[in-house]
Amino acid sequence: MVVHHVWIMPVLSVTCALIAMFSGYSIGVAKERFPPFFPFISDGGGYSPEANIFGQFLNMAGFLYVITVYVVHIQIVAFYGHVLKWNRSRWYYSSLLLMYIGFLSALGMTMVANFRYTEILPAHMIGAMMTFIAMVIYGWGHAIFGYVVIPRMIALGVIHFRFVLIILTTCCLILHQVAASSLAFVPDGAGAGENPGIEGMRSEESPFHKTYSTATSCEWGMILVMQVFILTFIAELRLLRACSPFGVEARQAGGRT
After folding, report:
1. β-strand 242-243 against 2-3: which pairing, if any?
2. Which residues pair with 52 in a beta bridge?
3. Which residues touch 45 (CB under 8 Å, ≥6 apart)?
4. What is the pLDDT of residues 8-56, one digit of tens each?
5. Mean pLDDT across the stretch 212-234?
6. Helices (H), 86-208
7. Residue 167 to residue 158: CA distance in whole angstroms
8. How far apart are CA 54 and CA 36, in angstroms?
9. For helices 121-148 and 90-114, what crossing angle results, to 10°?
């Protein structure tokens, strides 16, 4: 069996991720669990029924992301190893390492999906950080790989676009972490020694509101921009054909008999 549309994998992964995010957000807002202005993405996966939809589609997104990361690596191996006949060297091991980093990001996604922050917060937070950090490292790796390894599989314009996207993603990640783990956006002398919690930070009168809104908006920006980055892999995968070696072998055997 030959699969002619391997490029659909990143599209399906991104589609499932967006459904998870926006379904959880929409239902949560409709049930007045949080205000409509940029809650944390995980807020949409805290309570049923939105948490069930959020978790289901995020698990699917993680699975499809694993396939995407794998076939991107296979495409690199096919181009440089089989077409150009390069020996396995730094290009191969760099791609292999990036694939494993991508797998780690997908594992983090499934942890976010399966460990609700309302039930097992430490596991949820570990999964979120795995997703964020591994995804950014994966993006930087492919952006640099595209510039360094010549000849290139894709147009230089796509690589430039990826570079811009990963810079934006990194900036969002840094701002998110600064806002989430410090008082950098709290006015001087305000809120000293307070621990208002998420509900308190959501109030526009709270001195922590700017911190909260910065962290949440950067989280949304980071994930949405990274989804665009994942879609850029269509450029490589649109020419890839996946073939089952067992299917080919069976047809050959059938022909001989």
Report:
1. antiparallel
2. none
3. 20, 24, 51, 54, 55, 58, 112, 113, 116, 117
4. 999 999 999 999 999 999 999 998 888 888 889 999 998 899 999 999 9
5. 94
6. 90-114, 121-148, 156-181, 197-202
7. 14
8. 17
9. 150
